[in-house]
């Protein structure tokens, strides 16, 4: 596995405020190219034809554009992006398509239909909409639109029609929700002629999910827009930087859905982990005489202390006690009132909690960040050891399950089945956790027997379409735009 020397240095100086977007390097031409509608022999033709037919049937008109955004699988670096550390995901061949057009005149602001019958048609009457998890799948569409509206400022976006087609299994940890956010942001900016590059799209779409309460770190959005076909990506944050990572020819990554779905926006577990890491960081910062209110991420603490990951891990073990911290204990350590703590450190859906687990959470983050470093060192070697890559993935799973408690019994069972499969070098839960998918690595010559092993041992009673829950994927391209014929 080689790192391709294609570091992309065109980085947005986007500040996190979606009302402002400043481009720092226009010369690098990192805009999403507009492709012609595919010919009969090209990929996506059949799906686009079907989606165009749905659009015409529902809205009695033709779409202007089509947007494709891929799902992703994270190979290593779980729950570390929002702590400021880098990750190594790849885009997969499961994706979201949106056919869309802008319409003039008065009437409803947005009409959305979905190719899958279980997702009901949605009508948003006006620009002045609110976003709630009660809106279901359409809430993620609205998050992307809201981000684009902030770019427009006082100017109102035009009325829109959208038809959706998706192959990413929902609730699988493969970024179906983020793909919807990214796709709707790209649709809205394109239809309203907002010129914005891939890096800015990635930055802005990461903030968009906060409209539904998710305190993510930006990995899903970055890979959605910046993925390179044939390569995984090493992604760094604040600001975003990416490097293409070429995977060894003999390795194949297999994605297997545990059949346990989880929507991170509908529960507090995901945000609780974000906040537990933040609180641990701030306590350590205060103990070490730093301006703790300004330090929200573990990576920022490491930088302020000018220490290695190993030194930071020693500090965590020696300075934080095992077991839960009560809210009162945290307030005493930080010398703030409960109300001040809520305003400075907590998110709205974690303020009700009365206790937080700190040491195991940041222990996972720091050890996982070190695994990413080891992964990158291995992949840049001329004599890369595939077994060691697999071992890092399995260690990541153990840390996710034991220290971060983001696992699930079915995911653990699926990982164990994978590890016993032909040619398997490693396996781990991927994505947010608490269900969703597992990613395993095997060899090309073992792929078919490996898939048959997993089918017979985990999916023996599954009655749905098996290729939607068990599949291998080559690294795919990031977001694409297609013009209508």
From TrEMBL:
One of its GO terms (biological process) is galactose metabolic process. This is N-acetylgalactosamine kinase. Keywords: ATP-binding, Kinase, Nucleotide-binding, Transferase. The keyword Endoplasmic reticulum does not apply. It comes from the Eukaryota. Residues 387-459 form the GHMP kinase C-terminal domain. The lineage of its organism: Eukaryota, Metazoa, Ecdysozoa, Arthropoda, Hexapoda. InterPro entries: Galactokinase, Galactokinase_CS, GalKase_N, GHMP_kinase_C_dom, GHMP_kinase_C_sf, GHMP_kinase_N_dom, GHMP_knse_ATP-bd_CS, Mevalonate/galactokinase. Residues 53-102 form the Galactokinase N-terminal domain. Residues 146-226 form the GHMP kinase N-terminal domain. SUPFAM superfamilies: GHMP Kinase, C-terminal domain (SSF55060), Ribosomal protein S5 domain 2-like (SSF54211). One of its GO terms (molecular function) is galactokinase activity. One of its GO terms (cellular component) is cytosol. Belongs to the GHMP kinase family. GalK subfamily.
């Amino acid at each position: 596995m080689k790192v391709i020397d294609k570091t992309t240095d065109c980085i947005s100086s986007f500040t996190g405020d979606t009302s402002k977007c400043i481009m720092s390097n226009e010369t690098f031409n990192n805009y999403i190219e507009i492709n012609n509608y595919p010919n009969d022999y090209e990929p996506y033709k059949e799906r686009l034809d079907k989606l165009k037919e749905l659009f015409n049937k529902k809205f009695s008109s033709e779409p202007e554009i089509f947007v494709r955004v891929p799902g992703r699988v994270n190979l290593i670096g779980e729950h570390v992006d929002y702590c400021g550390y880098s990750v190594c995901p790849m885009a997969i061949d499961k994706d979201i398509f949106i056919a869309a057009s802008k319409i003039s005149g008065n009437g409803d602001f947005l009409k959305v239909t979905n190719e899958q019958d279980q997702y009901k048609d949605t009508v948003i009457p006006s620009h002045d909409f609110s976003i709630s998890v009660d809106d279901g799948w359409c809430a993620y569409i609205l998050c992307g639109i809201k981000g684009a509206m902030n770019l427009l400022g006082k100017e109102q976006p035009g009325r829109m029609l959208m038809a959706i087609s998706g192959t990413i299994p929902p609730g699988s940890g493969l970024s179906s929700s983020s793909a919807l956010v990214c796709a709707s942001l790209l649709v809205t900016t394109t239809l309203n002629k907002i010129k914005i590059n891939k890096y800015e799209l990635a930055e802005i779409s990461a903030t968009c999910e906060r409209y539904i309460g998710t305190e993510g770190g930006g990995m899903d959005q970055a890979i959605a827009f910046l993925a390179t076909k044939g390569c995984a990506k090493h992604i760094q944050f604040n600001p975003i930087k990416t490097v293409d990572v070429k995977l060894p020819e003999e390795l194949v990554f297999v994605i297997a859905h545990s059949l346990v779905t989880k929507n991170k926006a509908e529960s507090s577990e995901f945000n609780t982990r974000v906040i537990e890491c933040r609180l641990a960081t701030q306590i350590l910062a205060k103990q070490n005489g730093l301006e703790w209110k300004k330090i929200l991420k573990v990576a920022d603490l490491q930088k302020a202390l000018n220490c290695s990951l190993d030194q930071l891990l020693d500090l965590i073990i020696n300075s934080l006690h095992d077991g839960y911290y009560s809210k009162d204990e945290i307030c005493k350590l930080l010398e703030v009132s409960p109300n001040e703590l809520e305003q400075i450190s907590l998110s709205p859906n974690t303020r009700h909690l009365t206790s937080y687990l700190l040491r195991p959470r940041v222990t996972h983050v720091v050890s996982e960040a070190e695994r990413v470093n080891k992964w990158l060192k291995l992949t840049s070697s001329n004599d890369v050891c595939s077994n060691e890559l697999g071992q890092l993935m399995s260690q990541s799973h153990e840390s996710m399950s034991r220290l971060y408690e983001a696992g699930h019994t079915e995911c653990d069972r699926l990982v164990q089945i994978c590890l016993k499969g032909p040619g398997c070098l490693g396996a781990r839960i991927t994505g947010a956790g608490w269900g969703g998918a597992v990613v395993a690595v095997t060899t090309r010559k073992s792929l078919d027997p490996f898939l048959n092993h997993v089918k017979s041992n985990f999916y023996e009673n599954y009655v749905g379409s098996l290729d939607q829950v068990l599949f291998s994927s080559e690294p795919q391209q990031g977001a694409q735009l297609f013009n209508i014929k």
